[in-house]
Design brief:
With about 325 residues, this protein is mainly α. Helix content is about 70%, strand content about 0%. The N and C termini lie far apart (about 125 Å).
Length: about 325
């Protein structure tokens, strides 16, 4: 009975460990599926996942949490009553057996988690330039005036050296722009990094006052963080231009693709209005075609009558 309980505990712990592990990795995957994901947010999000996995599974003692507790609850509650046991195991025996099971699979768990952590670090290495763009995030700017005076100076210097070929005056005014702009960003606490970048890129006032940071904001906005958007684009193309709509022109396909990918969340009202406008325009086009056909028939009739009229011949 003890060997069978040991086997059951090992299987349960492995299953619920994988459930917890895949839950954390699934949350990271969902994060990468966000639309218009800013790459500046990626290092911190990946690092938080790595830290969580290391804390739970790579420490001296593995934090089994629900893996251990749920396995014990299933056995003690009789949820596995159909198991071929002579009698229902008691709580102390189960805890002792589960403890041995955790020791048995601990090495395998740590090896798997360590490989996953190493893969994440290799896939998402630390990048000082991407990390430097975080100074534009209003929530990161300190409230202390003394700290604010020194905030972001080293990151600004790194951006200036890296993007000097794209900036005006070789980026020499970037530090001066930051000395003024940091106080403006600090006054916009609660707003996101994306909102700041959009204002820097599109607001005439911001572009005039901070031309170099306006260029950097455009760089930050167009950096590709994942392949989610291209994947959605290819999928939408296959859905739009199928074998029944193979006569679509490139312009029509481009317009339909933009409607599919860029539509707002409450797009149904816009789609209904667009369809009504299209339907009205289609009706006008049909009337125009009928009128043109009538004009062409009238012209042909007049031409035929002039050919048959003997008075129209010149003497």
């Amino acid at each position: 009975m003890l060997s069978l309980s040991f086997y059951i505990c090992s299987i349960l712990l492995a299953i619920f460990f994988l459930r917890d592990l895949l839950h954390h990795l699934d949350n990271l995957s969902i994060f990468f599926q966000e639309r218009f994901l800013n790459p500046v947010r990626i290092p911190e999000r990946v690092q938080s996942t790595i830290s969580l996995l290391e804390c739970k599974y790579l420490g001296n003692n593995i934090l089994w949490e629900s893996s251990f507790l749920l396995g014990i609850q299933l056995l003690e509650s009789g949820a596995l009553s159909r198991l071929p046991m002579a009698r229902k195991p008691h709580g102390p025996i189960l805890h002792k057996t589960a403890a041995k099971a955790t020791d048995e699979i601990a090495d395998s768990v740590k090896t798997l988690v360590r490989n996953i952590v190493d893969s994440l670090k290799e896939k998402f290495p630390d990048n000082a330039i991407i990390r430097a763009f975080r100074i534009l995030d209003p929530d990161r700017i300190p409230s202390d005036p003394e700290k604010l005076a020194q905030y972001g100076n080293s990151e600004t210097a790194a951006l200036q050296n890296h993007f000097s070929d794209f900036l005006s005056c070789d980026g020499k005014d970037l530090v001066a722009e930051w000395d003024q702009m940091k106080y403006l960003i600090a006054s916009r606490k609660g707003e996101s990094l994306d909102e700041i970048c959009i204002d820097l890129a599109h607001s005439d006032m911001w572009r005039k006052e901070y031309p170099n940071f306006s260029i950097l904001s455009e760089v930050c906005m167009v950096m590709s963080a994942s392949t989610t958007e291209p994947d959605r684009g290819f999928t939408s193309v296959n859905l739009i231009k199928n074998k029944y709509r193979n006569l679509l022109t490139s312009d029509q396909l481009d317009q339909l693709l933009r409607l599919c990918l860029e539509k707002p969340e409450d797009a149904q009202d816009y789609l209904d209005a667009a369809y009504a406008a299209w339907l009205q325009a289609e009706q006008w086009r049909l009337l125009l075609k009928e009128w043109r056909r009538g004009e062409e028939s009238k012209t042909e009739s007049d031409s035929t009558e002039s050919d048959l009229d003997p008075l129209s011949d010149s003497e």
